Amino acid sequence: MTGKLIIISAPSGCGKSTIIHEIEERGNVEMKFSVSATNRAPRPGEQHGVNYYFLTTEEFHDKVVAGEFLEYEEVYPGRFYGTLRSEIDRRLECGDIIVLDIDVNGGLNVKKVYGDRALSIFIQPPTIESLRSRLEGRGTESPEVIDQRVSRAEYEISLAPKFDVTIVNDYLPQAVTEAEETIKAFIKR
Ligand code: ADP
Ligand code: 5GP
After folding, report:
1. pLDDT single digits (tens) 91-119
2. Contact indicator for 9, 161 with CB cutoff of 8 Å
3. Residue 158 maps to which CATH number?
4. CB-based pocket (< 6 A), ligand 1
5. Which residue of 7, 16, 18 sits with most ligand 1 atoms within 8 Å of its CB, as the best mutation to test the pocket?
6. Proximal ligand: closest to the CA of 22
7. In which order are the strands placed within the sheet that holds 32-33?
8. Which residues on adjacent β-strands are paired with residue 85?
């Protein structure tokens, strides 16, 4: 039996993590989360091996050289994020449904590799202003980093049409239901 991939991409702050968490809470779809590697520092409460594998820049580059990444991106200057092959291949063979929370370029690259075995979902904010206020409300980034993330968001939103499905995350419960139904239909296919 072979599994499938659910790729969820969006600019930072659009609600990817919240939507994935809500789908898990509802418990109607069994998905395994692909834990990415990054050289950014953990936020308060984030755990190594749960939210990310937190690596030094040197450790990250060693894994790049060793070919351990399916894909990786310098999402922000000096900040690397990557999907480890070990998170995907063996679990796909076991028939797992694997969910990836990755940036827009990474999402499109993974879709290219896995084709029909992957569903790519783009989460869109209602407006750029609402994205900024969500990032401010989350309170995990400095004003400079928020500016950087909002300006990158405009480029990322321009790539939305390349995804299989776009979901606007305005009213959260509705966005979660839409994502859940889309995923269920894809798994059944
Ligand atoms: P991402 O994982 O895409 O970076 P998060 O899931 O961390 O984004 O969401 C960013 C912030 O926006 C969080 O504080 C979250 O609680 C809030 N948020 C998410 N979805 C909504 C929504 N539909 N309406 C209002 N706030 C939201
Ligand atoms: P954050 O620092 O907010 O956790 O994540 C910043 C961005 O990096 C988000 O858009 C997130 O989806 C993306 N990201 C997380 N893991 C990966 C990954 O493995 N590969 C890529 N390409 N992007 C990732």
Report:
1. 999 999 999 999 999 999 999 999 999 99
2. no
3. 3.40.50.300
4. 10, 12-18, 134, 137-138, 169, 172
5. 18
6. 1
7. 32-33, 97-101, 4-9, 118-124, 165-168
8. none
Q: Count Cβ atoms below 10 Å from residue 140 Cβ, excluding itself.
A: 14
Q: Which protein residue has the closest C-alpha to ligand 1 atom 10?
A: 13
Listing from the earlier edge strand, what are the strands of the sheet with 79-84?
Answer: 52-54, 36-38, 79-84, 69-76
Percent of the chain at pLDDT above 70?
99
Q: What digits encode the pLDDT tens for the residues 133-145? A: 999 999 999 999 9
Specify the pLDDT at position 2. Answer: 84
Query: SS3 letters for 102-129?
Result: CCHHHHHHHHHHHHHHEEEEEEECCCHH
How far is the centre of ligand 2, averaged over its atoms, from the C-alpha of 176 (Å)? 20
Q: Is the pLDDT of residue 1 over 80?
A: no
Six-digit token pair at 180? 């859940």
Number of domains in the chain: 1
**Tokens read off for 76:** 């922000």
Q: Per residue in 39-77, pLDDT tens?
A: 999 999 999 999 999 999 999 999 999 999 999 999 989
Q: What's the half-sphere exposure (Cβ side, CA atoms, 13 Å) at 94?
A: 11
pTM of the model: 0.94
Domain enclosing residue 115, as ranges: 4-188
